[in-house]
Give the backbone structure.
Amino acid sequence: MSDRGVSNYFEILGESPRPWLDEDKLKSRFLELSAPLHPDKMVSASDAQKDEAGSRFAAINQAYQVLRSPKDRLHHLLDLTSLKLNDVQKIPPGTMDLFMEIGQVCRDTDAFLELKNKETSPLMKATLFIKGQGWSEKLEVLQQKVSEKRISLESTLKAQNGLRTINQIQLKSKPWKIPTAR
């Protein structure tokens, strides 16, 4: 627990506090730590050992659930620090425009699909098929933009891992013992 009453999920999973974590490595670490504590593995343990294992299992599971989501991980990282950021809810530049574009194209596509589904004439269906290909292309372009934005944001998070300020953040928390198989 930190001074602020927040468990240090990075410490629980044996990770250094940073904005970007490799999801596959994080999952492997979670499975490695949680497997020996799983209730099915504790059948012959005493009640006290079962309770201890259950508490640790729950803490490891909670840590994994938070750290696997980039948004939750960043919020947790901020919770662990004394940093007060007023603009945590702000989104990166250009993202709102992209959301607006996506919303408009989705509404227009839904209207087109509704019109297409109501059409009964084979000739009109063929005409609408050609228009549908145009909508498909527009959606593919948007999908590419979203993918590029995601890659850009992931790169930004990865770059944040190397900043000295992240490494120098003072995290005051209770030491967490990594469970060992018994």
